[in-house]
Amino acid sequence: MEPKRRILKIFNFLPVFLYSVLFASFVVNDLSHDDVKGDFSDIKSYKVTNFEFVEHNGPILTNIHEPIKPRDQRAILLQNYLQKQSSYLADYTDLIIELSDFYNIDYKIVVAIAGVESGFCRINFRPYNCWGFGDYAWDSPETSIREYFRLLYKNYYQKNLDTLEEIAAMYNPYPDQYIKKVNYFLNQVP
After folding, report:
1. Domain coordinates of the chain in residue numbers?
2. Which of 7, 35, 95, 165 is deepest in the core (most CB within 10 A)?
3. Phi, psi of 182, rounded to the nearest 5 degrees
4. What pLDDT, on the 0 to 100 scale, is given for residue 134?
5. pTM over 0.70
């Protein structure tokens, strides 16, 4: 065999060998600790940097990240809808769903109110205030979404004002017209 070919074979094998040694050293290092506890046999998938272990039966090493969670279908459908509306809220649908679940507020109402108040955030009278809520001006879309959910919960839901009719009576000076407009978008939001 030619020396050039022999060197090329060594260089082709070397990264695989080094990567294997490095991975083995992490495994040996982690197995030497007694901090692996519990039955994790129901967990199906883990992601470690560029590796993925599937159908893992047995103890899990402590340096492996959390299980991979599939994206919430509501967020995907909402994102598609908001993209059609040319709304920057489309980039924050995972956050909207997360906060909706956290505060137990229907995300569809939040999105429908944004549709009525600002055309889904296309025309805001105050910075990032898609909901026409008070005199609030926020410094980013994420902050506005978080604060709006918090304020909606504090000012309405915490006081048991959790239907559209109850919210509209305090939210807008013309609640009957407002309810019709919000319901129009509520029927469209997925």
Report:
1. 3-54, 73-186
2. 95
3. -65, -40
4. 87
5. no
